[in-house]
Design a protein that fits this description.
The chain has 247 residues and is α/β, with parallel strands linked by helices. 29% of the residues lie in helices and 34% in strands.
């Protein structure tokens, strides 16, 4: 954790720095005035935490907020408690009276770390949500049969397969030519329901009737509806197929 100390009394600043050493905290700098603080923020990235004395050498610390947008967490320090209510109008974690008690300092730092952890998790969650793109899989397919257009719901399809430079849809033991390639179908189909077992076939999980051990570490599939040719799970896809069928 990187910390900035803003304190006009140098002995107090040095004492605080010594106390922070036990927490393995890096003190970036020690400042004494409103003016020097504003200049520092104009040239440097904001720290994780600021220990901020209320009364500085050239005025109250609250004047800093009129010139700089502070995003760092703040622990206010002062010898006077009458500023506590105003202090908490800002991004304050805690309010410590001087001379700073080590136990209270420990509690304030632990509180700061807890807040940072929660905010980090929240940022990660928001990033995931912002990067998330809803995936919509095709739920139906249309096939032109003469002058008619027939609609097949995805759950009524046993498999898709390619043959003689064409792609076919199999449903209820009937085969229909469709326009999509198997590669495009892989993108459109829900992977929880459909699996491409080899270069030629994509099968629906509910269509699988039997799985038979086949030579050369492959598997042979028997479907409920499709009977026209053998469907063999290629050796390189056997492991993924087993995981898919067991999901």
């Amino acid at each position: 954790m990187k910390v900035l100390i803003i304190e006009d009394e140098l002995p107090s600043a040095r004492r605080l720095e010594r106390l922070l050493y036990d927490f393995e905290i890096e003190v970036l700098d020690k400042l004494t005035s409103v003016k020097s603080t504003i200049l520092w923020f104009q040239k440097n990235q904001q720290p994780d935490l600021i220990f901020l004395d209320v009364q500085l050498s050239d005025g109250l610390c609250f004047d800093i907020f009129d010139r700089v947008k502070i995003t760092s967490k703040i622990i206010f320090t002062t010898a006077f408690s009458n500023y506590s209510i105003k202090a908490f109008d800002y991004n304050s974690i805690s309010y410590l009276l001087k001379p700073i008690n080590k136990n209270k300092l420990t509690n304030a730092i632990h509180k700061t770390k807890e807040v940072y952890q929660k905010e980090t998790h929240l940022k990660e969650f928001k990033k995931l949500v912002s990067n998330y793109k809803a995936v919509h899989y095709k739920e139906s397919f249309t096939v032109k049969i003469g002058k008619k257009i027939k609609i097949f719901k995805s759950d009524d399809i046993s498999c898709f397969y390619s043959f003689d430079n064409a792609t076919f849809l199999n449903s209820n033991e009937n085969n229909y030519v469709i326009n999509q390639s198997l590669t495009r179908l892989e993108q459109d189909l829900n992977p929880a329901h459909f699996f491409r077992v080899n270069r030629t076939f994509i099968v629906h999980i509910n269509a699988v009737k039997d799985i038979i051990t086949y030579y050369n570490s492959r598997l042979k599939l028997i479907l409920h509806a499709y009977k026209d040719s053998e469907i063999i799970v290629s050796r390189e896809r056997v492991k993924d197929f087993k995981n898919w069928i067991d999901y």
